[in-house]
Amino acid sequence: MTRHATVEIREHLRSAKTLWCPGCTNGIVTRAMIDAYLSLGLDPEKVTVVAGIGCAGRITAYLDYSTVHTAHGRALAVATGAKLADPELVVSVVMGDGDCAAIGGNHLIHAARRNVDLTAIVFNNDIYGMTGGQAGPTTHEGDLSKTSPFGHPEPAFDICELARAAGATFVARGTPYAYLKLVQLLAAGIVHKGFSLVEVMSNCPTYYGRFNRTPVPAEMLKLQQKQAVPVEKHKAGAPMTEEQFPVGVLHHVERAEYLEAYEEVRRRATGIKV
Amino acid sequence: MPAERRLLQGNEAVAEGAIAAGARFFAGYPITPSTEIAETLSRRMPEVGGTFIQMEDEIASIAAVVGASLAGVKSLTATSGPGFSLMQEMIGYAAMTQVPCVIVDVMRGGPSTGLPTEPSQGDVMQARWGTHGEHSVIVLVPSSVEECFTLTVDAFNLSEQYRTPVIVLSDAMVGHMREAVALPLPEELRVAERSEPDVDPDEYDTVMSTLDNILPRPDLGSRFRVHVTGLVYNRRSGVPETGSPDVAQDLGRYLREKIYHHREAIVRVEEFMMEGAEVAVFAYGSVARAARAAVRWARAQGVPVGLVRPITLWPLPTAAVDHMAEQVRTVIVPEMNIRQIAWEVQAAVAGRARVVDYGRVDGALITPEQIKDLVKKEFHYHRFS
Ligand SMILES: Cc1ncc(C[n+]2csc(CCOP(=O)(O)OP(=O)(O)O)c2C)c(N)n1
Ligand code: SF4
Ligand SMILES: [Mg+2]
Questions:
Q1: How is domain B269-384 classified at the CATH fold level?
Q2: Residue B381 scores a pLDDT above 80
Q3: Could you tell which of A55, A60, A72 is best to mutate to test the pocket of ligand 1, judged by most ligand atoms within 8 Å of the CB?
Q4: CATH architecture designation of domain A6-270
Q5: CB-based burial label for B181 (10 Å; 0-12, 13-18, 19+)
Q6: Where would a tag sit more exposed on chain A, N or C end, judged by fewer CB atoms within 10 A?
């Protein structure tokens, strides 16, 4: 995995002007996605990015591939239809944490169970960014937000665990701080045949950092780096605090991909013996 | 070769119509009384190399249909009342993004779980206005098994031509009824093919569809690197532009006019025994069957009554309503809801004739006898008024 020159990256952006706040890591993840596509040498015509609604979902207006900005929570279902209709598409599905695990949670578990060849890329900033900082399914117990002014009374989802339990065949987690590692994880998820999910621990200085942990974006990046424990160490039994989380490829198995399974259905329907 | 005659159920005919129209993707979720459409297509789609998928709910179903259509495959879903309600947000998305697709709603009694196995026409307004925001859709109402087939084909053609979701509004009676039908042969059918816009991909975002030249939608994965968004977008570039009232107004008007400008070409209506009619029955879907029987009976008695049957419910066939309003003194509107279309007819008739509504929401079919009674009263009323 290499970091491509900015001029090369720019060629895959419709606009370098975004509505993301200064200090938001969404731009870093956007670049990491382009670096992953370039590293894999994918045909840009076949790269399709489907996203939900939220700050993360806005990526579709900036990336110069075929892009679909769907409805809040529905990206995976739209992507499922697109991939089944045209298996040649290389489909990445960008979702915010609320998009993916609250309103779209049902689609997430079923897409994982079906093992459709999609790559879910979750921008997890622990908050509803676009709507101005309300608590979501990944907001931690005790966190302050616009809808948890006295501290959030609910526990947070672990999106990776959720995806794994539902049947995802590739699950990884990365941080914008460890940039090249993130590119590597994204590329591995894209190459994986089956449902893959890469959770990116992004930040939201505007609505999360200002009220929790640290308002300084660079400090948040460093903090996340400290919290990130390589999965190998985690598996070897390294002690972890409440705030820490494993990063790397958390889960990787091979299982029949949906389109392959459906080819068998077509063969049976037409009575062609194999 | 003569057309093949088959005993088919309305729902099966919808499924066969979809296949004949070139649909190769179905996503749905089981719900009475539409389920046979999914069941039939779970066999037929893989047989013809297409895809059937049972999704986790109706929201996912319509979302997958939009995704498949964006990727270049003609697609449909089928549902009933509660599922149709769940689909509304994404139907609006399809209207906004101009994605051709077909939604079949086999109406049952509502609201809520209502009368799951009984017919209704309670969704006629939801079909028109169910999603939020100004938009337009095309809604077709079959009243026979044969029409379940032909109107499904028409629905696909219209959705391709006007880049819009098209709703086939069937009901539990039409959907579950069996009739012997002669399905048209493939060579007898007009089937609109999806094509690429005839412009250079580099120029694509500088050209714009006009009301008279609606460009086809380029597929995902084609030479056109499209951006599809449910935000208000600039009709030229496709790029979201939410800060300009002019851009929003232009798009909003276009999405509406795209359908209404072509009303004459889109709208289909059947007039039955309207010659010399003094009273018209305005009925659609399964109710039109009872109305036809009542009109025949009346004519046999020498009573001048005719039937106007909209096949396209939305846009409303206003020209036919105008014509009817000029001709008759009374319009009877029987429907399996309370006044949903009668109000529309009343507005269009604009005082030129009396409008008598007859609504039932008990899950029972409206019978020829009930319509006969309305007709009898009408002539009695006339004589003594
Ligand atoms: C059906 C529906 N409900 C609510 C909203 C409002 N809404 C827009 S974005 C959003 C949450 C975004 O949070 P997240 O998914 O975490 O993405 P982020 O903005 O943090 O990237 C909500 C609730 C909507 N657009 N649609
Ligand atoms: S609100 Fe938060 S997530 Fe959204 S752009 Fe600003 S910093 Fe990023
Ligand atoms: Mg978020």
A1: Rossmann fold (3.40.50)
A2: no
A3: A72
A4: 3-Layer(aba) Sandwich (3.40)
A5: buried
A6: C
